[in-house]
Amino acid sequence: MTRHFLRDDDLTPAEQAEVLDLAAAMKKDRFGYRPFEGPQTVAVLFDKPSARTRVSFHTGIGELGGLPLIVDNVSVLMGRGEPPADLARVLDRQVAAIVWRTTGQELIDEMAAHSRVPVVNALTDEFHPCQILADLQTVQERLGRTAGITFTYVGDGANNMAHSYLLGGATAGMHVRIAAPAGYQPDAVILDQAAAIAAKTGGSVVALTDPVAAAQGAHVIATDTWVSMGQDGKEERVTALMPYQVNSELLEHAAPDAVVLHCLPAYRGYEITAEVLDGPRSVVWDQAENRLHAQKALLHWLVSRT
Ligand code: CP
Ligand code: NVA
Question: Within 13 Å, how many C-alpha atoms sit on residue 17's CB side?
Fold first, then answer.
């Protein structure tokens, strides 16, 4: 059966742990794994801008012995009204895996439903699961564990990062707290799904409106841009979300050794202050590097099971 990674809960808790263990091993032996020797090609398609995802997949596929086919403007491939299902059936006869950053989750679901090779979500409007693998790897490195830690995300609780933290964090057995104002709260269905996972892993999930209550004793404080790609209404969003800025005052409520995550790009002075982003608690550059190791492990794991 072809394994895809379209949302965080496509990996069971045991499988997620396996991928993260592999990521740690591959980070130690960076050029020692070459499953795409041939070279086999991996298609990496972008419908939205990207720095970290583009660089880490390009670099990682090369390090795995493969050939990255990076397509930055998917209209080059799909600009004539062809459905994702047809592109899947063209690509899967030639490439080892398909990685896609796009808009609606239904597009990547359709691609995966028709692909005999693994399809990987490199960010949709709904989820950003590759980022969460890198974040979990970073937390594991810094805190020595993921299960049982309190992970607080403050900001836009309705975006792809918040939803992926809920599912991926619950899968890892973390206590995930989302702090967001009314109108920016997580999707209730995803919150329920995450709660069901957490009930099995010993974690928990909760959506709050008070950022200080959410930060209390947290081991990790995470945030993300207040205006995701494709969204408008910046002024209104900034007004609603300003009380949810990650700054030194908020950090005072977290655990003394708490670390700060941001998937980047960051907007200093909005969702996070420069003092915090560029300060000693911030682990964002390790986090960005871990995209490389986590995605190499994911690709290796997926193709070896397909
Ligand atoms: N964090 C992240 O996905 O960065 P890019 O949008 O630059 O790929
Ligand atoms: N929520 C952000 C994440 C960027 C990596 C966005 O979708 O733009």
Answer: 12
Does ipTM exceed 0.85?
Answer: yes
Give 275-293 pLDDT, tens digit per residue. 999 999 999 999 999 999 9
Per-residue pLDDT tens over the stretch 45-104: 999 999 999 999 999 999 999 999 999 988 888 889 899 999 999 999 999 999 999 999
Binding site as annotated, residues for carbamoyl phosphate:
101, 128-131, 263-264, 291
- Per the residue annotation, which of 7, 52, 54, 128 is the catalytic one? 128
Q: What is the pLDDT of residue 77?
A: 85
Quote the pTM value.
0.98
Distance, in Å, from the CA atom of 255 to the CA atom of 266, rounded to the nearest integer, reads 23
98 in Cβ contact with 92 (< 8 Å): yes
78 lines ligand 1 (CB under 6 A): no
Give me ligand 2 centre to Cα 101, in Å. 11
Strand segments, DSSP code E, in the chain are 41-46, 67-71, 95-101, 119-121, 150-154, 175-179, 204-208, 220-223, 259-262
161 bridge partner residues? none
Q: Give me the domains of the chain, ranges plus CATH numbers.
A: 8-127+291-304 (3.40.50.1370), 131-287 (3.40.50.1370)
CA angle 134, 298, 193 (to 5 degrees): 70
